[in-house]
Design goal:
Elements lengths: L9 H9 L5 E3 L3 H8 L5 E3 L3 H16 L10 H5 L3 H12 L12 E3 L5 H4 L3 E3 L2
Parallel strand pairs: 1-2
Antiparallel strand pairs: 3-4
Length: 126
């Protein structure tokens, strides 16, 4: 599916709200980016058996050492993905108010699945 890298499943936001450790085995997509943004360290590339094993070792070590809470995502960072915050952002947009985090044109990398249609492989301001 074109643009799959920009998609994050709705289930992710429930996980962020739960405030518990999250294990992710994912392709390089938006879900993976969000998990990194909120401080989840237990994320492995879906094509890397060694990374997957390392994540499960990390999880087991934290569990057996009584430090599982150290793997909980950053609560403040998770708030940016809450329904309340997203609703407030939508209301601002519909009312024509400035965004809390303004969009900066050409400050992102074009996802691989869209490069053929869009062209440039990277639109990054220097």
């Amino acid at each position: 599916m074109k643009g799959y890298e920009l998609f994050a499943g709705a289930k992710l936001f429930g996980y962020l709200k739960a405030g518990r450790p999250i294990v992710g085995v994912l392709p390089p997509d938006e879900t993976k980016k969000i998990l990194h943004r909120v401080g989840v360290s237990t994320v492995a590339d879906d094509n890397s058996p060694s990374e997957i094993a390392a994540v499960f070792r990390q999880l087991f070590d934290a569990w057996s050492g009584g430090t599982l809470s150290s793997l909980i995502p950053n609560r403040a960072a998770c708030q940016a993905y809450s329904a309340e915050w997203q609703t407030a952002a939508l209301v601002c947009a519909l009312e024509g108010k400035p965004a809390a985090e303004p969009f900066v044109p050409h400050s992102f990398e074009v996802p691989p699945s869209l490069r053929e249609d869009i062209g440039d492989t990277a639109w990054v301001n220097n």
